[in-house]
Amino acid sequence: MAETIKDLEVIQTDTKTYKVVVTENGAVVDISGHILFFTVKAKLTDADTAALISKTVTCPHNAASEAGIGYITLSSTDTNIASSNYTYDIKYQNSTGLRKTIISGEYQVNTTVTKRLI
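Request: output the structure for the sequence above.
Response:
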């Protein structure tokens, strides 16, 4: 499972779902019951408790998870942070406790134009 560097962006207050595919040596990994962590920080050295966005997802027992596919959904509350460039990663933990960073990079939050809600 090699780490991928990939920059992401979101517009403030938008709901956003990221699809993650977990592989090992080119083969998909059944991630049923495994955990995905998504963390966004202002600085790489910030403590996890200071994260601007922190999501923990337990992958369900379904066909997508069996195919190595997991989803991390951010709510409009999660993405309601100041417009800026941050750092993020997605970490995977299997049932034996093995933890690997699978994706990391810059996380850009852009200002929303529409502020009103229905």
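The radius of gyration is 15 Å.
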